[in-house]
Amino acid sequence: MDNGEIEGTDDNEFASSSSSKGVGLGVGRKYRPVVAHDTDRAVLEMSSLDPSSFPKKIKVSTQPNSGSDSSERSLPTHVGANGSQRESKLELFGFDSLVNILGLKSMTGEQIPAPSSPRDGEDVSITLERPKITGVKSGTMMGVFVPCLQNILGIIYYIRFSWIVGMGGIGESLLLVAFCGACTFLTSISLSAIATNGAMKGGGPYYLIGRALGPEVGVSIGLCFFLGNAVAGALYVLGAVETFLKAVPSAGIFRGTLTNVNATGVAEPIPSPSLHDLQVYGIVVTIIICFIVFGGVKMINRVAPAFLIPVLLSIFCIFIGIAAAKKDHPASGITGLSLQTFKDNWSSDYQRTNSAGIPDPAGKTDWNYKNYTIPTRGTVEAYLKLPVAFALVGLFFPAVTGIMAGSNRSSSLKDTQRSIPIGTLAATLTTSGLYIVSVLLFGALATREKLLTDRLLTATVAWPFPLIVYVGIILSTLGAALQSMTGAPRLLAAIANDDILPVLNYFKVADGSEPHIATLFTAFICIGCVIIGNLDLITPTVTMFFLLCYTGVNLSCFLLDLLDAPSWRPRWKFHHWSLSLIGASLCIANQVHPKNWYPIPLVFCRPWGKLPENVPCHPKLADFANCMKKKGRGMSIFVSILDGDYYECAEDAKAACKQLSTYIDYKRCEGVAEIVVAPNMSDGFRGIVQTMGLGNLKPNIVVMRYPEIWRRENLTEIPATFVGIINDCIVANKAVVIVKGLDEWPNEYQRQYGTIDLYWIVRDGGLMLLLSQLLLTKESFESCKIQVFCIAEEDSDAEELKADVKKFLYDLRMQAEVFVVSMKTWDIHVEGGPQHDESVEAFTGAQRRISSYLLGMKEKADREKTPLMADGKTVVVNEQQVEKFLYTTLKLNSTILRYSRMAAVVLVSLPPPPVNHPAYFYMEYMDLLVENVPRLLMVRGYRRDVVTLFT
Questions:
Q1: How many whole angstroms separate alpha carbon 175 and alpha carbon 153?
Q2: What is the DSSP letter of 687?
Q3: How confident is the model at residue 438 (pLDDT cuts 50, 70, 90)?
């Protein structure tokens, strides 16, 4: 065998094998054509190397089961990347040349072991066989559609859905299903676009978000999604156990409880399982599921149909039972499909319930928000009852989650780019259609009382007997729990493998291995939540975890699509950045309950004047910001605006931001510093109020100092800027607190005595009340008492108003003394008018200055033959209205001085800037309002409540 030729023992010559390692053979060697089944083992061979200079011997073995003997031949040392000598002409290209098939594997993101470098004298064994298949991959049906369907069709549909229809009515229930379904559908579209933009490894949504927005964002959202899956497993387990104990009460180890409907002893009591039974059975079921998960994905794929088929059968039996139901059959309260029942159940009927969800006037759970209004026209307005749509969202949303059950197992799918979009969207549309039809059928099937009292109405109407639904509920929840316990550990292992958080190194796994330690940790979290034993307490937590993750997926797709990165080429074409933006907006629009509202101050550091050198913020602003936070907890954002061009002032802005951060730390205030460069203060603040913060972490209240020096130092630009900032806050729906007398604001060591007086004029969502309570938590104000002055017109019923306000404060758990002050009309000639008031000098001064300013505007307009102009825009001045504003402000100032001269601090409603009035006029109104009041907070709420009667 001259010229380095090598004999093969079968039809597949060694040429294909050796060439796959980059081996050059002798001259005259005939090349075999590369055919389809050889593409993974053959590449073109190069014959330019001299084999005589490489004495190295390589041991070549053929297929291990062929029975052929191996032979030793002299071959070049340089075999692909494994050579120890580097005299090859391929050195020009480096050893990672294009002919290296490993390079193609690295482009797909696969983990490739580093090539070994054999020592001299060693033999290198080459095996001619195809790569070993690690395991069976799943397709669209079993890998995505079935897991998603099992996670979506859970306990909420069976034991909460009919109750939601009874509480919210058919109309609002349809809106609820549409809202939640749209949220998950849009997220599925975003998920499909990202999943088809290249190969996706294990980790599902974490992998997607981490590669799109960065590993830090991916880890934070990925951990939330992991916790959501782990807690959801407890939700499903508790649902299965609760259903089992209701179906078989004799299986209970401990004694259950009895609940009387409507708190009467006449009605038939409803049994409820014992908390200890839920805990014991829940722990046992969780352990069993954990052992099943230890068997791997292959075992779960075999078990999954056994859980899903009875679920689909139970739903079929429910629909058959609904169609066959008649009046009072199969139970009282069942009307059959009736148009009259449909009309009766169309509207909502929110009411109190007990812990079992049964309507009870004495129940502790109230499904109404009650927004009280303080009247200003002498009549007590009835409080407004608003439907608790967002409360029902928190309860129902877990019924639509589960769309990522397939993507969680991305490493086990044959074709992620095909299976994830088709399987996820199919499951989403199927379940959404099922829910919409169910709302209509349940609403037309039973009376509202039956819907609200029979938590297992689905089992009651099932044909031919309820046992089918009981089995369906148990198997559906166990199937969903199985999917959660399968996906969550793999997600945690994927996060750990990225080495972002060292504390997660214990959960690392090799490729293709089962995450056993992560599975045990997930089971531990699940057991901890099962011990809580209350399904309704776990549901809102699951909702927030999933919404956070869905927001991350939508934002990832939105940013990638909007920026149009070169690598953004998804195969899924049915997407658009606007859909992702809408999906993200829906995910972050769940309202925070007023009981969980807390101020996030945006502290405007602009001093309206000069500060001492190296002092970036007024020394008392941080003290006041701390007064707005209970026990000093919570975040504040300190912002300042640097006038100028960004390119010229960028370095100055960085230095100023560092200086402001140091000041915040020195004042021991939890918060962050931001410096914005803008052409002027108005533009800078408008940008800040629109963009600062994210989601529920956006600042909700703007704090700034009142510009008391504007007239004294003749700062003529301040009125327009000040009014513009207030209007920007109103448009951006931010609350506003303006501090007058900031220089005299006490620090933490200066104890105050006296009262905290509130002049409550307009409805502000309770913000003024909440601020007064927060002040009482500080050592400097803890010795003070609260006084509430309700301003009413002279024809109002003062006693009735006082009684209503006292009852409202009592329900709010606030101790305060209430006074009703009757404001006279603005006519100056009434008895006790402003001519007898000590503030008359300020009033006449403001009146004189406004008249002079107005005269100047008119002369300028006549001279230029233009309309009245102020602050660069046209204004319409009603002189009679201006006089009315002045007299009203003066009267309010006189009232404050009469009753609150010795108050530690006064809070008063901030009037909005009048439309079409010059900013100068508004500053005169405000100056008259704060005249001779040493320490005053002007407060304006926004369109939401910040206090609630209910815990």
A1: 19
A2: H
A3: very high
Contact 624/617 with Cβ under 8 angstroms? no
Q: 3-state DSSP call for residue 674? A: strand
Q: How many CB atoms lie within 10 A of CB 392?
A: 24
Burial degree of 612 (CB within 10 A; 0-12, 13-18, 19+): exposed
For 816, phi then psi, to 5°, come to -155, 150
Tell me how far apart the alpha carbons of residues 340 and 338 are, in angstroms, rounded to a whole number. Answer: 5
Contact between residue 609 and residue 646 where contact means Cβ atoms under 8 Å apart: no
Phi and psi (nearest 5°) for 789? -105, 115
Q: If we measure between CA atoms, which residue out of 924, 940, 931 comes closest to residue 882?
A: 924
Beta strands at 270-272 and 257-259: parallel, antiparallel or unpaired: antiparallel
Neighbouring CB atoms inside 10 A of 747's CB total 12
β-pairing, 785-793 vs 755-760, is: parallel
User: Residues 15, 73: contact at Cβ < 8 Å?
Assistant: no
Query: Which pLDDT score, from 0 to 100, does residue 630 have?
Result: 66
Residue 403 three-state SS? coil
CB of 738 closer than 8 Å to CB of 769: no
Amino acid at 119: R
Q: Alpha-carbon distance 232 to 937, whole Å?
A: 46
Angle at 809 between CA 805 and CA 814, to 5 degrees: 150
- Spatial distance between the Cα atoms of 871 and 682, rounded to a whole number of angstroms: 13
**Is the pTM here over 0.70, yes or no?**
no
Q: Angle CA(557)–CA(560)–CA(561) in degrees, nearest 5? A: 80
Per-residue pLDDT tens over the stretch 105-149: 333 444 444 433 333 333 333 333 444 445 567 788 888 888 888
How crowded is residue 536: how many other Cβ atoms within 10 Å of its Cβ?
15
**Under 8 Å between Cβ of 623 and 747:** yes
More confident residue, 514 or 833: 514
**Mean of pLDDT values over 583-612:** 74
* Alpha-carbon dihedral sign for residues 717, 720, 726, 732: negative
Q: Which residue has the tokens 């090598």?
A: 6
Pairing mode, strands 905-909 and 873-874: unpaired
What does the block give as tokens for 223?
């951990």
Residue 802 CB partners (closer than 8 Å, separation 6+): 790, 818, 819, 820
Q: What mean pLDDT, rounded, does the chain reach?
A: 75
Q: Minimal CA–CA distance to 147: which of 345, 420, 446, 365? A: 420
Q: With CA atoms as reference, report the closest residue to 72 among 125, 116, 118, 15.
A: 125
Q: Cα separation of 655 and 649, whole Å?
A: 10
- 756: its two tokens: 């905290």
Determine the number of helices (DSSP H) and then strands (DSSP E) in the chain: 28, 19
DSSP string, 859-871: HHHHHHT---EET
DSSP, residue by residue, 140-170? HIIIIIHHHHHHHSSHHHHHTHHHHHHHHHH
Contacts of 310 (CB under 8 A, 6+ apart): 468, 471, 472, 475
Q: How far apart are CA 221 and CA 329, in angstroms?
A: 49
The backbone region for 557, taken as left when phi is positive above 0, alpha when psi lies in -120 to 50, beta otherwise, is: alpha
Residue with tokens 């996906």: 487
The terminus-to-terminus CA distance of the chain in angstroms comes to 91
d(CA 626, CA 774): 10
Q: Residue for token digits 């005249």?
A: 931
| Residue 366: strand, helix, or coil | coil
With residue 554 as reference, give the H or E element that holds it. Answer: helix 535-563
Burial grade of 697 (CB within 10 A; 0-12, 13-18, 19 or more): exposed
Q: Which residue has the tokens 């020195």?
A: 666
In whole angstroms, give the CA distance from residue 151 to residue 399: 8
Token pair 């079935």 is found at 146
585: number of Cβ within 10 Å = 14
Read off the pLDDT of residues 124-134 as tens digits, 9 standing for 90 and up. Answer: 333 334 444 45
